[in-house]
Amino acid sequence: MFPLAGKEFPTSSDELASSIEDALAEVFTLPKKCGVTVDGAKFPALKTVKINLSGATVSATEPPPKPKPTGKREPGVRVEKLDITGHPIQYEQTKLNLKVTGSGLVFDFARDKKGKPLLVLAEAEDGKVEAKITKKDIETLLMEAAGVAAKQQGITIQGLDLNLKSDGPRSVAAVVRVKAKKMLMSGTIVITGKLDIDDDLNATVSDLNCTGEGMVGTLAAGVVKAKIERYDGTTIPLMAFSLGDVALRDLKIKVKDSVEVSAAFGKQA
């Protein structure tokens, strides 16, 4: 599902491309290489729709809620091939890699409760979603958060080790060991937590806790714990779009040097 800019439904390929791109610009800061390309002279029958979000940054502090269509729909467009790429999309301090491909897609025109136009996915022959957060990006985010918290107590963070493992079909468990030093004394901070993935490809952080080893580690753990508690329950959208009426299936999570989430959508064979 894509929000559309303006008040009226597009009536040509060029209008559709501009409408999608202008709506995206309300949520993302888009570099010049980003954009929407629509190939299809016989509107509303389109050969391809390509959306390039590589290098885009989510400009809002929180992504807006995904719009919900209300009222009567109208026939929209048919798309032979859809390709959405974001390598990467920047969300706060996190880089997300996204790839969505689909074929045999049918979209309806609809409006949200405020009357704004939407493009809603009604049917799909086949499709795949792939989202990835690298371990390095997670470590960078954690290192920055730990460093800010520890600095208040005159503690220096010297290193960080992140251990990720699958904790069920849709969950990843994390153990972070942080080496801390204050003057001549050193210690370790241990942060634990979980990342759960839902059917809309939202990753929710939960069960955050922080303990310390040694005098410095214990001192720093108390400060860090107070800082990370506000992130418990935080949701990170791995996909900036809703699939409308089409549900995801066969959701899988792989944990290697990254957390990789994949799922299929469309008619099952």
Poorly predicted parts: none
Say how many strands there are. 15
Structural class based on helices, strands and sheet pairing: alpha+beta
Mean pLDDT: 86
Which H/E pattern describes the elements? EHEEEEEEEHEEEEHEEE
Strand content: over 45%
In short:
This protein is 16% helix and 54% strand.
List the helices and strands and how they pair.
Layout: E1 2-3, H1 13-24, E2 28-29, E3 35-39, E4 45-52, E5 57-58, E6 70-91, E7 94-111, E8 117-134, H2 135-151, E9 156-166, E10 171-182, E11 185-197, E12 202-213, H3 214-228, E13 235-237, E14 248-255, E15 258-265
Describe it.
With 269 residues, the protein is an alpha+beta fold. The protein has three helices and 15 strands. The protein has helices at residues 13-24, 135-151, 214-228, and strands at 2-3, 28-29, 35-39, 45-52, 57-58, 70-91, 94-111, 117-134, 156-166, 171-182, 185-197, 202-213, 235-237, 248-255, 258-265. The strands form three sheets. Strands 1, 3, 4, 6, 7, 8, 14 and 15 form an eight-stranded mixed β-sheet that branches. Strands 9-10-11-12-13 form a five-stranded antiparallel β-sheet. A two-stranded antiparallel sheet has the order 2-5. A hairpin with a 5-residue loop joins strand 7 and strand 8 (117-134). The longest helix is centred in the middle third of the chain and has 17 residues, at 135-151. The model has no long low-confidence stretch (mean pLDDT 86).
